[in-house]
User: Fold these one by one.
Assistant:
Number 1:
Amino acid sequence: GFDQIIHDVCIQDLNVKFCMDRGGIAGGDGQTHHGLLDIAYLRAVPNIIVMAPKDEGEMRDMLFTMIEHNGPAAMRYPRGNGVGVPLDREPELLEVGKAEILRDGGEIAIVAYGSMVHPSLMAAENLAKENIETTVVNARFVKPLDASLLLALARTKRLIITVEEAYLAGGFGSAVIELLEENGLQDKVRVVRMGIPDRLITHGDAKLLLAKYGLDSDGIYNRVRESIDILDSRRAKPQRRSEERRVG
């Protein structure tokens, strides 16, 4: 099947669309049905566009965008119900490779992919109650990335959190780090990747499994707080050393 994607579609740059159900943790369907590898195995293939919607409304936009795009394209979406957004508007054509800023402010950016966008927004709301303002970005595309936006975030933020419902190895967060390295910004900002670790995920309730791996609003909130504390402690250490040298 993987060879067919490469040989029969992408090498020939054919106008074929892939709609991938069960993107992420499939819950009750068990180990064999978790869709956690698609980002890693698709973003390495030339000519294909790879995307994921934040909700059922944007899924309609992406379907329309896929149809209008001439060439290979893939969209993943999770198992289960949508978040409940209105579906009474006409689908919109999305700009390929363009992310969406949903919340703007502060020194922290949460860049979420697909199903992780709404939990990230909830986490940002909880952080705001503690006067921690965050920028929240709906990445939309993992290939191509919104390079201009991500590079701007790297230049202006102290912390970027990437969140994906997929394996971390070769995933969305890895793509972001690669982009920063290609542009010499890998040491300018702290990047923390949130996703699924390198292990087989068991059968179980999807909400419980997401919570177990920190991929719900509480988990994202906690990871942001922990990451801020680590940055603050690192910032304080050089000051203490300089004070010790002056005393000495």
Number 2:
Amino acid sequence: MTHSVMLIAGARPNFIKVAPVLRALGAKGNVDVSLVHTGQHYDDAMSGGFFRLLDIPDPDVNLNVGSASHAVQTARIMERFEPVLEERRPGCIIVFGDVNSTAACALVAAKLQVPAVHVEAGLRSFDRTMPEEINRIVTDALCGLLLTSEPSGRRNLEAEGHAAASIVDIGNVMIDSLEHMRPRLEAV
């Protein structure tokens, strides 16, 4: 049985996190993986260079949203992601971290009733003046599977009322990217 999974990446921190997950899912052999780049970070220094450095293949879809205010950028992502999700209908989407792309795509998936998974769930600054904090809270509220990178993530999610069964401690996938890069780094 083949499973269909769509990974969402939009900004530099997402690329570092998506790389090891993409490799792991690809190695399973029974997972049809697609990659959507929202274009939140779009120039070569903040996007293309990371794709090459981390051995990430070209995205299957690029939404090309570019820069704008938080509200405009989030709206553009939602507007451009919705038809992609409607057409492709994966078994689930996986979002990463706390950028506008993360919250926007989780919201679209929730409205279209496509299951969503959040990698790096439960992290909190407890400062709601930070746009990223709002993105974290919204994303965790919308995703059915919450993958935590460290113990405070689980504690925060449980304190917010998330069911323990929806929380899985997976560790920090950024370390997986570091380990993938270690041979190149040591050779320098």
Number 3:
Amino acid sequence: ALSIATRPDCLGKDVLCLIEELCKIKPVFIELGLQTIHEESAQYIRRGYPLSCFNEAVDDLKKVGANVVVHLIMGLPNESKEQMLESVKYVASKDINGVKLHLLHVLKNTDLATEYEQNKFATLTKEEYYSIIADAIEILPKKVVIHRLTGDAPKKLLIAPAWSANKKDVLNGMK
């Protein structure tokens, strides 16, 4: 199989034609970084494209025979648990094949780090993250493969949440 991670706004007709040809040779997985369905959050993280672009990309990719895997970030600043789960419900309603669930990581030397240090937002606790992930798993259809339950950041760059530094511990703590 072939796996390609990209943005929904990078799938021009020429790229879709190439993906269609590749799908005739082997299974192709296209990973799309959606992160959230909420436009205010999308603007905050400078996602750079509207939700409609994501929708069009999913439709186009399915037409050419690609498998679609969507990335979501849990714990974006100022998003409630309900909003995070709305993003999960939204992608669950789409014709996707998989999802990668990520925890927001605050990294050194970023605008996000500056805002975190100014106490403009808090990161999720381990218990909050586990609760969100458990609810997300319940929402996702059984046919959707969960490719990731959390990510990991370079420990030298990680500011918060500190508990996420040991990915094995995080995964082992999920029940």
